[in-house]
Amino acid sequence: MSARKTAPRLALVVGTVTVALAGCSGGAPPTPPPAAVTPATPAASPVVRPKEPDTGKATLPAIAYEPKGRRDPFTPIFLGKDNAALSVTAVKLTGIVGGRVGLMALVEGPDGIGYILKPGDALGDGRVTGITPNSVTFAVSARGSQGATGLTLRLPENQ
Description:
Blueprint: H1 3-24, E1 78-79, E2 84-85, E3 92-99, E4 102-108, E5 114-117, E6 122-123, E7 126-132, E8 135-140, E9 149-154
Antiparallel strand pairs: 1-2, 3-4, 4-5, 6-7, 7-8, 8-9
């Protein structure tokens, strides 16, 4: 190509690039968005803010469990000082009562402490499997070489 033909093309390319860059180089700044209009009446919607906690008040004191002769309900039932577990063979059935959940058994341990049991409750080495109007049945866990057994306690006939 001759220099005569390339000069007009070069001028056309340079002119196009200059016009494109002039459009990007700024010019007039864009118009800002309109300012937010605040309502003239403050009763339109009151602003409710959450209450901040008071840091000056003292915290509540810790509550301690006072047994007052009662056993702790979260400890397993044990007999004696050597922590021998309570055996269902050592308890006696003293009564059967009806409640909202069905029948409940009243049993008394050898130390004279009474227990109210419903089906599914555990006592010592056994778990209550059933209660009838005159008996309670326990599933006794295995000991040593013995297998798991069942034990039924009945109310005395003269009651």
